[in-house]
User: Fold this.
Amino acid sequence: MPGHPTDCGRLVMSGRTRARRNPPIIPSRHAGLRTCVGCRTRDERSVLLRVVALVGNDATQHRVQRDVERDVAVLVPDERGRLPGRGAWLHPRLDCLEKAVQRRAFPRALRITQEVDPTQVREWIAGR
Assistant:
């Protein structure tokens, strides 16, 4: 019979029934992928270095020398990933650090308005 749900020998399903019978395949998402703020490539979390900006009292608590005359945030390498606050991810290479500083990517990624001082991160990368 034309117009019947079993027309042409196949079962006509509603969208709801089809969704229940054939659930969508959700691709697995890698929780460990982060984007380098310097070169903008994605890489594993274990390969990248987390960088945190310390401002004001946070800098003095962590025994960081800071420029009192200017309002500057000090970038500190966070090897263990335990420092509080927002972090930016960076390949531990000087070229990625220089690209990030040149593009002013750290204030954007860390959502701060101060200038940044990358001296400690530069020393950490050079000493590696």
User: Anything to note?
Assistant: The first strand starts at residue 33 and ends at 35. The chain is about 25% helix and 20% strand. The radius of gyration is 25 Å.
